[in-house]
Write a structure and sequence with these properties.
By secondary structure, the protein is α/β, with parallel strands linked by helices. The protein has helices spanning 7-15, 30-35, 39-46, 61-66, 95-115, and strands at 2-4, 19-25, 51-56, 74-79, 82-87. It is globular, with a radius of gyration of 13 Å.
């Protein structure tokens, strides 16, 4: 996962062509640590369809507020510079829920591309 360190980098990555999924996390977040062991496998599984980026909500508070992130971990999918769909709540996320969300993001992006 690409670790985003500046607001400029975040804006650049989410504006790029294709699907970019931002994962909002924090070092102190237990539910964020829960997903760490399986996220590399999930990333590998989806590497041909999307790019995963990681945002630390404490390091990039400006971006977290701008994106209205209230609970973590939170996932927001962007396609060609616009928000597609989000998976944002304060509950722990399972691998299958994350994969379902990523599949939804790919489907929404495909629908939008077909319409344009």
């Amino acid at each position: 996962m690409i670790k985003v360190t500046t607001a400029e980098q975040f804006r650049e990555l989410t504006a790029s062509a294709g699907i970019t999924v931002a994962v909002f996390k924090a070092d102190w977040c237990g539910d964020c640590k829960f997903i760490d062991p399986f996220m590399p496998e999930v990333e590998e599984q989806y590497k041909d369809r999307l790019t995963l980026i990681q945002i630390d909500v404490d390091e990039l508070e400006e971006i977290s507020q701008e994106q209205r992130i209230m609970g973590i971990p939170s996932f927001v999918a962007y396609g060609d510079g616009r928000e597609l769909v989000r998976f944002v709540n304060k509950l722990r996320k399972s691998r299958s829920e994350i994969e379902d969300f990523l599949n939804k993001a790919v489907a929404v992006y495909g629908t939008l591309k077909a319409q344009s």
